[in-house]
Known about the structure:
Strand content: 5-15%
Number of strands: 8
Structural class: alpha/beta
CATH class of the domain at 110-196: Mainly Alpha
Largest sheet: 4 strands, parallel
Distance between the termini: 55 Å
Amino acid sequence: FPTTCPECGSYALREEGDAVRRCTGGLICPAQAVEKLKHFVSRAAFDIDGLGAKQIEQFYADGWITEPAQIFTLEARYGKGMHQLKNREGWGDKSARKLFQAIENKRTIPLSRLLFALGIRHVGESASKLLARHYGTWTAFEAAIEAARDGVGAAWDDLISIDGIGKVMAQSLVSTFAQDAERASIDRLVAELDIEATVRPDVGNSPVAGKTVVFTGTLEKMTRAEAKARAESLGAKVSGSVSAKTDILIAGPGAGSKATKATALGITILDEDGWLDLISDA
Length: 282
Protein backbone atom coordinates (compact mmCIF):
# COMPACT_ATOMS: atom_id res chain seq x y z
CA PHE A 1 0.00 0.00 0.00
CA PRO A 2 1.25 3.55 -0.69
CA THR A 3 2.36 5.55 2.32
CA THR A 4 1.17 8.86 0.86
CA CYS A 5 -2.21 9.84 -0.56
CA PRO A 6 -2.18 10.01 -4.39
CA GLU A 7 -4.67 12.88 -4.27
CA CYS A 8 -3.03 15.31 -1.83
CA GLY A 9 0.35 13.83 -0.88
CA SER A 10 -0.47 13.60 2.83
CA TYR A 11 0.77 10.69 4.90
CA ALA A 12 -1.41 7.57 4.68
CA LEU A 13 -1.69 6.06 8.16
CA ARG A 14 -2.50 2.45 8.91
CA GLU A 15 -3.90 2.26 12.41
CA GLU A 16 -3.37 -0.75 14.61
CA GLY A 17 -5.83 -3.46 13.60
CA ASP A 18 -6.66 -1.85 10.24
CA ALA A 19 -5.94 -3.66 6.97
CA VAL A 20 -5.74 -0.46 4.92
CA ARG A 21 -4.03 2.89 5.08
CA ARG A 22 -6.09 6.09 5.27
CA CYS A 23 -5.16 9.58 4.12
CA THR A 24 -4.54 11.99 6.99
CA GLY A 25 -4.95 15.03 4.72
CA GLY A 26 -8.50 15.64 5.89
CA LEU A 27 -9.73 19.07 4.86
CA ILE A 28 -7.04 19.60 2.22
CA CYS A 29 -7.57 16.30 0.39
CA PRO A 30 -9.78 16.74 -2.71
CA ALA A 31 -11.10 13.20 -2.32
CA GLN A 32 -12.41 14.08 1.14
CA ALA A 33 -12.97 17.82 0.92
CA VAL A 34 -16.65 17.98 0.01
CA GLU A 35 -17.72 15.49 2.67
CA LYS A 36 -15.51 17.21 5.24
CA LEU A 37 -17.09 20.56 4.38
CA LYS A 38 -20.57 19.08 4.70
CA HIS A 39 -19.60 17.78 8.12
CA PHE A 40 -18.18 21.18 9.04
CA VAL A 41 -21.53 22.92 8.49
CA SER A 42 -23.63 20.12 10.00
CA ARG A 43 -25.98 20.71 12.90
CA ALA A 44 -23.64 19.54 15.67
CA ALA A 45 -20.75 21.51 14.18
CA PHE A 46 -21.05 25.09 12.88
CA ASP A 47 -24.72 24.72 11.86
CA ILE A 48 -24.74 27.73 9.50
CA ASP A 49 -28.29 28.61 8.45
CA GLY A 50 -28.64 28.51 4.67
CA LEU A 51 -25.36 26.70 4.08
CA GLY A 52 -26.17 23.02 3.79
CA ALA A 53 -24.94 20.06 1.76
CA LYS A 54 -26.45 21.33 -1.50
CA GLN A 55 -24.87 24.76 -1.23
CA ILE A 56 -21.51 23.27 -0.21
CA GLU A 57 -21.49 21.04 -3.30
CA GLN A 58 -22.26 24.00 -5.57
CA PHE A 59 -19.69 26.33 -4.02
CA TYR A 60 -17.00 23.63 -4.04
CA ALA A 61 -17.65 22.73 -7.67
CA ASP A 62 -17.20 26.38 -8.65
CA GLY A 63 -14.11 26.85 -6.48
CA TRP A 64 -15.78 29.35 -4.18
CA ILE A 65 -15.31 27.27 -1.02
CA THR A 66 -12.60 24.59 -0.94
CA GLU A 67 -11.75 24.72 2.79
CA PRO A 68 -13.59 25.90 5.93
CA ALA A 69 -11.68 29.18 6.24
CA GLN A 70 -13.10 30.28 2.88
CA ILE A 71 -16.62 30.16 4.31
CA PHE A 72 -15.67 33.12 6.47
CA THR A 73 -14.14 35.07 3.57
CA LEU A 74 -17.08 34.44 1.23
CA GLU A 75 -18.57 37.91 1.67
CA ALA A 76 -15.24 39.65 1.17
CA ARG A 77 -14.71 37.72 -2.06
CA TYR A 78 -18.24 37.52 -3.46
CA GLY A 79 -20.22 40.23 -1.68
CA LYS A 80 -19.40 42.81 -4.31
CA GLY A 81 -17.71 43.11 -7.67
CA MET A 82 -18.47 41.29 -10.91
CA HIS A 83 -19.00 37.82 -9.43
CA GLN A 84 -21.45 38.37 -6.61
CA LEU A 85 -23.35 35.71 -4.70
CA LYS A 86 -26.63 37.53 -5.26
CA ASN A 87 -26.20 37.11 -9.02
CA ARG A 88 -25.89 33.31 -8.88
CA GLU A 89 -28.83 31.24 -10.05
CA GLY A 90 -31.18 30.62 -7.15
CA TRP A 91 -29.80 33.53 -5.14
CA GLY A 92 -30.84 37.16 -4.75
CA ASP A 93 -29.83 40.17 -2.71
CA LYS A 94 -31.91 39.16 0.32
CA SER A 95 -30.81 35.52 0.42
CA ALA A 96 -27.16 36.49 -0.08
CA ARG A 97 -27.25 39.02 2.75
CA LYS A 98 -28.97 36.48 4.97
CA LEU A 99 -26.24 33.91 4.35
CA PHE A 100 -23.45 36.41 4.95
CA GLN A 101 -25.04 37.34 8.28
CA ALA A 102 -25.52 33.70 9.25
CA ILE A 103 -21.83 33.07 8.59
CA GLU A 104 -20.86 36.14 10.58
CA ASN A 105 -22.94 34.93 13.51
CA LYS A 106 -20.89 31.73 13.67
CA ARG A 107 -17.47 33.37 13.87
CA THR A 108 -17.82 32.97 17.62
CA ILE A 109 -17.88 29.25 18.36
CA PRO A 110 -17.45 27.05 21.44
CA LEU A 111 -14.22 25.07 21.51
CA SER A 112 -16.04 21.72 21.56
CA ARG A 113 -18.00 22.53 18.39
CA LEU A 114 -14.84 23.59 16.58
CA LEU A 115 -13.06 20.37 17.52
CA PHE A 116 -15.99 18.31 16.27
CA ALA A 117 -16.30 20.37 13.09
CA LEU A 118 -12.70 19.62 12.07
CA GLY A 119 -13.81 16.08 11.24
CA ILE A 120 -10.74 14.38 12.64
CA ARG A 121 -11.05 10.59 12.43
CA HIS A 122 -12.38 9.02 15.66
CA VAL A 123 -13.07 12.44 17.24
CA GLY A 124 -16.83 12.56 17.58
CA GLU A 125 -19.12 14.95 19.39
CA SER A 126 -18.64 13.37 22.84
CA ALA A 127 -14.86 13.19 22.50
CA SER A 128 -14.77 16.82 21.38
CA LYS A 129 -16.54 17.83 24.58
CA LEU A 130 -14.09 15.77 26.65
CA LEU A 131 -11.13 17.44 24.98
CA ALA A 132 -12.62 20.91 25.35
CA ARG A 133 -13.36 20.33 29.02
CA HIS A 134 -9.87 19.00 29.66
CA TYR A 135 -7.85 21.69 27.89
CA GLY A 136 -10.23 24.64 28.26
CA THR A 137 -8.89 26.82 25.45
CA TRP A 138 -7.80 26.39 21.85
CA THR A 139 -4.32 27.68 22.73
CA ALA A 140 -3.88 25.06 25.44
CA PHE A 141 -5.27 22.29 23.23
CA GLU A 142 -3.08 23.22 20.28
CA ALA A 143 0.06 23.39 22.43
CA ALA A 144 -0.72 20.04 24.06
CA ILE A 145 -1.26 18.24 20.74
CA GLU A 146 1.94 19.70 19.38
CA ALA A 147 3.84 18.56 22.47
CA ALA A 148 2.34 15.07 22.15
CA ARG A 149 3.21 14.56 18.48
CA ASP A 150 6.00 12.05 19.16
CA GLY A 151 3.67 9.76 21.11
CA VAL A 152 5.78 9.90 24.27
CA GLY A 153 6.25 12.25 27.19
CA ALA A 154 4.05 14.09 29.67
CA ALA A 155 1.75 15.70 27.08
CA TRP A 156 1.06 12.36 25.41
CA ASP A 157 0.44 10.66 28.76
CA ASP A 158 -1.92 13.45 29.73
CA LEU A 159 -3.82 13.13 26.46
CA ILE A 160 -4.37 9.39 26.66
CA SER A 161 -5.26 9.62 30.37
CA ILE A 162 -8.48 11.50 29.50
CA ASP A 163 -11.32 9.07 30.08
CA GLY A 164 -12.75 8.29 26.66
CA ILE A 165 -9.65 9.32 24.70
CA GLY A 166 -7.62 6.23 23.86
CA LYS A 167 -4.36 5.78 21.99
CA VAL A 168 -6.07 5.38 18.61
CA MET A 169 -7.91 8.69 18.91
CA ALA A 170 -4.84 10.40 20.33
CA GLN A 171 -2.74 9.21 17.40
CA SER A 172 -5.36 10.49 14.98
CA LEU A 173 -5.22 13.91 16.62
CA VAL A 174 -1.45 14.26 16.61
CA SER A 175 -1.20 12.89 13.04
CA THR A 176 -3.65 15.51 11.80
CA PHE A 177 -1.77 18.37 13.40
CA ALA A 178 1.58 16.99 12.19
CA GLN A 179 0.50 17.32 8.54
CA ASP A 180 1.80 20.69 7.32
CA ALA A 181 -0.96 21.31 4.77
CA GLU A 182 -3.76 20.22 7.11
CA ARG A 183 -2.31 22.28 9.94
CA ALA A 184 -2.06 25.33 7.69
CA SER A 185 -5.73 24.91 6.73
CA ILE A 186 -6.72 24.72 10.40
CA ASP A 187 -4.59 27.79 11.19
CA ARG A 188 -6.32 29.76 8.43
CA LEU A 189 -9.69 28.78 9.87
CA VAL A 190 -8.77 29.66 13.45
CA ALA A 191 -7.57 33.08 12.29
CA GLU A 192 -11.15 33.83 11.21
CA LEU A 193 -12.77 32.76 14.48
CA ASP A 194 -13.34 33.83 18.05
CA ILE A 195 -13.14 30.53 19.93
CA GLU A 196 -14.96 30.45 23.23
CA ALA A 197 -13.12 28.79 26.09
CA THR A 198 -14.86 25.96 27.89
CA VAL A 199 -15.90 27.36 31.25
CA ARG A 200 -14.65 25.20 34.05
CA PRO A 201 -17.16 24.50 36.84
CA ASP A 202 -17.14 26.54 40.05
CA VAL A 203 -15.90 23.86 42.41
CA GLY A 204 -16.06 25.91 45.60
CA ASN A 205 -14.84 23.80 48.49
CA SER A 206 -15.05 20.53 46.61
CA PRO A 207 -12.97 17.81 48.30
CA VAL A 208 -12.02 16.38 44.92
CA ALA A 209 -11.17 19.57 43.02
CA GLY A 210 -7.96 19.06 41.08
CA LYS A 211 -7.78 15.37 41.92
CA THR A 212 -7.61 12.55 39.40
CA VAL A 213 -10.20 9.84 39.95
CA VAL A 214 -10.84 6.52 38.26
CA PHE A 215 -14.06 4.49 38.32
CA THR A 216 -13.91 0.72 37.95
CA GLY A 217 -16.25 -2.19 38.50
CA THR A 218 -20.03 -1.92 38.60
CA LEU A 219 -21.72 1.17 40.04
CA GLU A 220 -25.10 0.40 41.59
CA LYS A 221 -26.50 3.81 42.54
CA MET A 222 -25.68 5.74 39.38
CA THR A 223 -24.52 5.08 35.87
CA ARG A 224 -20.88 5.46 34.94
CA ALA A 225 -21.79 8.53 32.86
CA GLU A 226 -23.61 10.11 35.81
CA ALA A 227 -20.70 9.40 38.15
CA LYS A 228 -18.25 10.88 35.69
CA ALA A 229 -20.34 13.99 35.12
CA ARG A 230 -20.72 14.53 38.86
CA ALA A 231 -16.98 14.16 39.46
CA GLU A 232 -16.14 16.59 36.67
CA SER A 233 -18.69 19.11 37.94
CA LEU A 234 -16.78 19.07 41.24
CA GLY A 235 -13.51 19.83 39.53
CA ALA A 236 -12.09 16.31 39.42
CA LYS A 237 -10.32 14.89 36.41
CA VAL A 238 -11.74 11.49 35.44
CA SER A 239 -9.21 9.13 33.93
CA GLY A 240 -9.74 5.75 32.35
CA SER A 241 -6.55 4.21 33.70
CA VAL A 242 -4.73 3.96 37.03
CA SER A 243 -1.29 5.54 37.27
CA ALA A 244 0.95 7.19 39.83
CA LYS A 245 -1.02 10.40 39.15
CA THR A 246 -4.32 8.83 40.28
CA ASP A 247 -5.61 10.17 43.60
CA ILE A 248 -8.75 8.11 44.16
CA LEU A 249 -10.05 4.84 42.74
CA ILE A 250 -13.79 4.25 43.15
CA ALA A 251 -14.18 0.48 42.96
CA GLY A 252 -17.54 -1.22 42.59
CA PRO A 253 -18.26 -4.94 42.50
CA GLY A 254 -16.15 -6.72 39.91
CA ALA A 255 -13.19 -4.36 40.18
CA GLY A 256 -10.16 -6.20 38.86
CA SER A 257 -6.71 -5.20 37.69
CA LYS A 258 -7.23 -1.49 38.32
CA ALA A 259 -7.91 -2.16 42.01
CA THR A 260 -4.86 -4.38 42.20
CA LYS A 261 -2.66 -1.72 40.63
CA ALA A 262 -4.11 1.02 42.86
CA THR A 263 -3.33 -1.06 45.94
CA ALA A 264 0.24 -1.57 44.78
CA LEU A 265 0.64 2.18 44.22
CA GLY A 266 -0.87 3.11 47.58
CA ILE A 267 -3.78 4.98 46.01
CA THR A 268 -6.89 5.72 48.07
CA ILE A 269 -9.62 3.21 47.19
CA LEU A 270 -13.28 3.92 47.97
CA ASP A 271 -16.41 1.92 47.33
CA GLU A 272 -19.42 3.67 45.83
CA ASP A 273 -20.89 4.59 49.23
CA GLY A 274 -17.55 5.98 50.36
CA TRP A 275 -17.38 8.12 47.24
CA LEU A 276 -20.91 9.43 47.75
CA ASP A 277 -20.14 10.25 51.37
CA LEU A 278 -17.01 12.13 50.34
CA ILE A 279 -18.86 14.38 47.90
CA SER A 280 -22.16 14.60 49.81
CA ASP A 281 -21.57 18.14 51.09
CA ALA A 282 -19.98 19.49 47.91
